[in-house]
Write a structure and sequence with these properties.
single chain, 2 domains, 2 strands, elongated
Length: 134
Amino acid sequence: MKVNEVPQDNTVEYYEGVKRACYAVNDEGKYVIVTSSGWSDEEFINGLAVKELAENLEKTRKAVLAGEKSPLAYHMERRQMIPEILGKTAGVAVFRVRRHLRPGIFSKLKGSILERYAEALAITIEELKTVPQN
């Protein structure tokens, strides 16, 4: 896209008036950084993504309350982590993270493992063991 084609829609919801940087091609054919106040199509797509993330988090919360998943699954989903990322961040093998997503296994975890998860998820151990009721 050329410098004069960079969208300048007024997308308040996601950018809150702050401009963001985009790459565009100048008259000399070189890439340069150009500021943009947003693009309405991008705002729409971001809105859909945020809605889907919220729906997935709600499904996971309900599964935890129903005893199908451990609270770890909820907090992982809330932080948009997958077992591989949480495992590396917490220093826990990925297969163990997957096992800890089961409520029966999670309820028996030692404090040291819970501490690792809590630190990796930037929450307290008490928060890690629970999910919001509504």
